[in-house]
Design brief:
Keywords: Electron transport, Heme, Iron, Membrane, Metal-binding, Transmembrane, Transmembrane helix, Transport. This is C-type cytochrome. Pfam families: Cytochrome_CBB3 (PF13442). It is a single chain. It contains seven helices and no strands. By secondary structure, the protein is mostly helical. It is elongated and about 100 Å long. The chain binds heme C. Heme C (HEC) binds next to helix 4, helix 6 and helix 7.
Length: 169
C-alpha cells in the first residue's frame, strides 16, 4: 500500500466517523426534545409507576397487625364484580389436592380419618389460620383461596370425607 492510499483511507475513515458522531448528536437532540423530563405529567406518571413497583405484592404480618382483607365474594359483589365463592370440593380439587392426595410432604390425605383425628382438636380457628398462613411443611394457602373458601375446603376434606367433627375454638 502506498503512502497516498494510506492517507486516502485515513481521510475517508475520518469522514465516516465524523458522520456517525453527527448522527449520534442529532439523535440525542431529537430524543431529548421528545422525552425530556420537563413534562410534569410525565414525571408524575413515572413517580406513580415507581411507587407501584415498590409495593410489596404480599405482606408479612407482624404479630398485632390486623389481618389484611382477603378479597371475598361479598366485597367483589359490592364492587359490582361477579366472583363466585367456590365450594369446598372445588377448592380442594383446585388447590389442596396437589399435596393432600398421595401424602405429599406427609400431608394427611383427603378423608384420612387416622391422619386427621390427631390434628382436629386444634379447632376450626387454628386450623383455618394454619392453612391461610402456612404450617410446618404446608406453605401458606391464603393467596390461592379466600379464608371463606379455605374453611369450606377444610370442611369438605376432613368432615365430609372422614366423618370427623372439628370442634369450634
Ligand atoms: C404444597 C402442599 C400443600 C397444599 C397445596 C395444601 N396443603 Fe394442607 N398440608 C400440607 C402438609 C405437608 C401438611 C402437614 C403440615 C405439618 O404438619 O408439617 C398440611 C396440613 C394441613 C392441615 C392441618 C394443619 C394443622 O394445624 O395441623 C390442614 C387443615 C390443611 N393442611 C388443609 C389444607 C387445605 C384446606 C388446603 C387447600 C386450600 C391445603 N391444605 C393445601 C401440604 C399442603
Amino acid at each position: 500500500m502506498s503512502a497516498e492510499q494510506d492517507s486516502v483511507f485515513v481521510r475517508n475513515f475520518a469522514l465516516v466517523i465524523a458522520g456517525l458522531v453527527g448522527v449520534t448528536i442529532l439523535l440525542i437532540v431529537i430524543a431529548n426534545s421528545m422525552f425530556g423530563d420537563e413534562d410534569p405529567a410525565r414525571q408524575e406518571l413515572a413517580e406513580e409507576r415507581a411507587a407501584a413497583n415498590l409495593e410489596r405484592p404480599f405482606a408479612v404480618r407482624l404479630s398485632g397487625e390486623p389481618a389484611p382483607a382477603i378479597a371475598s365474594a361479598e366485597d367483589s359483589a359490592d364492587a359490582g364484580g361477579v366472583t363466585e365463592v367456590r365450594s369446598g370440593e372445588q377448592v380442594t380439587q383446585a388447590v389442596c389436592i396437589a399435596c393432600h392426595q398421595g401424602n405429599f410432604l406427609n400431608a394427611p390425605g383427603i378423608g384420612d380419618t387416622e391422619g386427621w383425628s390427631a390434628r382436629i382438636d386444634k379447632g376450626w380457628e387454628t386450623l383455618t389460620i394454619n392453612v391461610v398462613n402456612g404450617y410446618g411443611n404446608m406453605p401458606a394457602q391464603g393467596g390461592a383461596a379466600s379464608e371463606e373458601e379455605i374453611r369450606a375446603a377444610i370442611e369438605w376434606m376432613i368432615e365430609d370425607q372422614s366423618g370427623l367433627e372439628i370442634p369450634e375454638s
